[in-house]
UniProtKB/TrEMBL annotation, chain A:
Alphabetical list of CDD domains matching this protein: HFD_POLE4-like
PANTHER family in the record: DNA POLYMERASE EPSILON SUBUNIT 4 (PTHR10252:SF79), HISTONE-LIKE TRANSCRIPTION FACTOR CCAAT-RELATED (PTHR10252)
Residue stretches of biased makeup (Acidic residues): 1-10
UniProt xrefs under Pfam families: CBFD_NFYB_HMF
Keyword Nucleus belongs to the record: yes
Lineage of the species this protein comes from: Eukaryota, Metazoa, Ecdysozoa, Arthropoda, Hexapoda
Record protein name field: Transcription factor CBF/NF-Y/archaeal histone domain-containing protein
Record domain Transcription factor CBF/NF-Y/archaeal histone: where: 43-106
UniProtKB/TrEMBL annotation, chain B:
UniProt record, GO biological process: DNA damage response; heterochromatin formation; leading strand elongation
Coiled coil: none
Disordered: region residues: 106-129
The name this protein goes by in its record: DNA polymerase epsilon subunit 3
Length: 120, 129
């Protein structure tokens, strides 16, 4: 199946963060969770993010902004990965996402190639 | 090292909550899949960190900044996140500034109160005279 990976992920990211139509003029089918208060700017613990960043032997210092952006990007990434995995589950007519759906998503989408072999 | 890396997984509950936000309500995520998502997220953090650091180093800097991360999103084919990240960054900066201002304001108030107390003492002395 050769679809445009970037378009797939972009559409889902749009639904995740804002209740707006995406650039193609298609409205989101997924219900947007507006229960999240705007004050809660990020959900992943910044301390844990920084801890992981330090695991990179070449990285010594980062600004608070950099850590925040990586935390936020990771949230967006999770949304995209979950959406892609759900597509795989849907094709198999399942409503429970399984690990193999995530594996399939990784194999299908170029930008997820960095995860190949990592989740074994 | 592999064992310590597992300990660096982001909290499963938070990861699952974030993933569920984009999914229809009747969809669930299996246990192994939740763990896989958390691990994938950790790997992503490292991946972007490494890419950001490469960019910082290229510019003769040892500290990764926000622009390095934004640029890294382009380099790693996650450019579709950039607009959202930029908007959130503005909001984050605003909150940080508000926090700083609140701290300064509190300090000024405390200083003001102690000055008032001092001048009241002086006024009492003048009255006596």
């Amino acid at each position: 199946m050769e679809t445009s990976e970037s378009e797939i992920i972009e559409a889902d990211v749009t639904t995740h963060t804002e209740n707006e139509q995406d650039e193609n003029g298609e409205s989101s089918e997924n219900p947007v969770r507006e229960a999240e208060k705007p004050e809660k700017l990020f959900k992943l613990p910044l301390s844990r993010i920084k801890h992981i960043m330090k695991m990179d032997p070449d990285t010594k210092h980062s600004t608070q902004e950099a850590a925040f952006l990586i935390a936020k990007a990771t949230e967006l990434f999770l949304g995209s990965l979950a959406t892609e995995a759900y597509k795989q589950a849907s094709q198999a007519k399942r409503k429970t996402i399984q690990k193999k759906d995530i594996d399939s998503a990784i194999n299908c989408i170029d930008s997820l190639a960095f995860l190949e072999g990592v989740l074994e | 090292m592999a064992q310590s890396f597992d300990d660096l997984n982001l909290p499963n509950a938070v990861v699952t909550r974030i993933a569920k936000e984009v999914l229809p309500e009747n969809v669930s995520i299996g246990k192994e899949a939740r763990t896989a998502l958390a691990k994938a997220a950790s790997v992503f953090v490292l991946y972007i960190t490494s890419a950001s650091n490469a960019l910082a180093t290229k510019n003769n800097r040892k500290t990764i900044n926000g622009l390095d991360v934004i640029e890294a999103m382009h380099e790693t084919d996650f450019h579709m996140f950039v607009e959202h990240l930029k908007e959130n960054l503005e909001y984050f900066k605003k909150i940080q500034q508000e926090k700083k201002d609140a701290v300064v304001k509190q300090k000024l108030q405390k200083d003001g109160e102690s000055n008032c107390a001092a001048s009241n003492d002086n006024a009492d002395e003048n009255d006596i005279q």
